[in-house]
């Protein structure tokens, strides 16, 4: 038996197969991470209910005082953030309001499963997958295509290739998904029907132009593009080092998982200030949309960052350090290892077909 030739990372598979691999990875990542975030939000809710939290946090953004009857919170399924708005605590999502007392994380898992059923751990997942999976498919497929184009099609060499390809792929994915993100925020916050939503979008475009559909694009790009560039740069570097260390030509599932976790943690730490700003901006836009307040000139990213620095110093810009790393690292590990496994599966399947055809 002769040795198989070393192939390029995406050789032997079609873009459709890349999409299937990334889509499967996105689905598994969401299934894995969603219960962790549901439990986290439920624990936070019992510690500081919205009506109490807002009494101590009534600072204004862009001159808009947030009334105590409103509050937003962010929910993440491992792939993207989603905003929920509670009005008087009455129209908030049902899985947030359930009045069960938990003594800790493990106790929360046990009680939610026992009292509310296993499905409650994946509350809110189906609607978010409608956007999360397509966004991830676009992102991962574009990254592989751009990396291979730069490295093998145009002949560029160097460790900067994953950095450039990762940044450009995320920029494209964010730009495509951004209008859908705004639409979803409007539907969640104002509970609009599809016909009402069409009228709302037409009115917004007529008043502020087509660019109004990309409101909030800037803060998202400032967080996601540097994160993706750093993530892919570190991932390819760590993966190559682990492959050399274990003397394998192609990354195994465990190597991809380890490299994904390490690179995800590093990227999460280095881009944390932008994540803090993006979270505040997301909540700001969500609450202003809900209140019907004009958002033509919302607070800029840099203004929010300066305000956080003046208020809390560097600690404020790195708030939520541990929860973000704990959430991002395993999500990245599951996503990339599943994606790489899927690509290897399709490569072997296509190779076997070719051999059978000969």
From TrEMBL:
GO terms for biological process: heme biosynthetic process; mitochondrial transmembrane transport. SUPFAM superfamilies: Mitochondrial carrier. InterPro entries: MCP (IPR002067), MCP_dom_sf (IPR023395), MCP_transmembrane (IPR018108), Mtm1-like (IPR045315). One of its GO terms (molecular function) is 2 iron, 2 sulfur cluster binding. It is a multi-pass membrane protein. It catalyses: glutathione(in) = glutathione(out). It is found in: Mitochondrion inner membrane. It holds the Pfam family Mito_carr. Solcar repeats lie at residues 13-149, 157-241, 251-345. The chain crosses the membrane at residues 121-140, 160-183. The keyword Transmembrane applies. Keywords: 2Fe-2S, Heme biosynthesis, Iron, Iron-sulfur, Membrane, Metal-binding, Mitochondrion, Mitochondrion inner membrane, Repeat, Transmembrane, Transmembrane helix, Transport. It comes from the Eukaryota. GO terms for cellular component: mitochondrial inner membrane. Belongs to the mitochondrial carrier (TC 2.A.29) family. This is Mitochondrial glutathione transporter SLC25A39. It comes from Salmo trutta (Brown trout).
